[in-house]
Amino acid sequence: MKHAAFPHTDGYRVGSASSAVPDSLSVVIPAHNEAGNIATLLQEVCDALRGRIEFEIVCVDDGSSDGTGQVLWTLKSGIPELRPFQHDVCRGQSVALLTGVQNAYSPWIATLDGDGQNDPADIPSLIARLEESPPDVKLIAGWRVMRNDGSGKRIASRLANRIRRFFLHDGTPDTGCGIKLFERDAFLSLPAFNHMHRYLPALMQRAGWRTVSVPVNHRPRGSGRSKYTNLGRALVGIRDLLGVSWLTARHVRARSRSIQETRP
């Protein structure tokens, strides 16, 4: 793949239902202390997309202490699609996601968690769903129907999703799933804040776009430990939920049209 091709193409082609269907893709992967998982994940991305679509992989090492950045540097010589970036210290998943999207070349972004629990083989299914969708659908969200987590994490996630849907009415069964497909410009127009990645469907809908959820595979973590605890997630989640609820309630939109100059 020639990276220079990305800045000189609009990255779209005409589809049957949508006026803007991607013909190139930037896969953005935030990673913190995932040295044991990232090589396998990157190879799976290549296996899923090579020959299907022009793509790049923008992997952001979020201040890892386990050598994730060095692993990415080593892998770069064998994976021409890989463009690695690194934060000086851990800034959080949402900041790493934003760094990746800002540096991405394609108008369309697919995201994956760096722990390998999202299956890259699901990305073509998300693209296919986008092709069937009207042009105002700007986000296809993964839905982990069968979770491969411990019972405590599953229960906490189910409860959190119910509370979130009650407050935000976003109609999304699994907003925390890391695999998503969205338009880059639509994402960059959203308000940026820590933990925003958990509220992307609600934020997209707030901006006037539609979102769709698609069942995806969910796998056990390959190695390492989760960066989140149920208590920690709950404490920040309450504040974030109230903030997003306020943003949604206070948002205003107006339709406009050009006033054409007329001559007598």
UniProtKB/TrEMBL annotation:
Taxonomic superkingdom: Bacteria
InterPro entries: Glyco_trans_2-like (IPR001173), Glycosyltransferase_2 (IPR050256), Nucleotide-diphossugar_trans (IPR029044)
Positions of the Glycosyltransferase 2-like domain: 26-187
Alphabetical UniProt keywords: Cell membrane, Glycosyltransferase, Lipopolysaccharide biosynthesis, Membrane, Transferase, Transmembrane, Transmembrane helix
Name the record gives this protein: Glycosyltransferase family 2 protein
This protein's record includes keyword Transmembrane: yes
Keyword Cell membrane: yes
Alphabetized Pfam families for the sequence: Glycos_transf_2
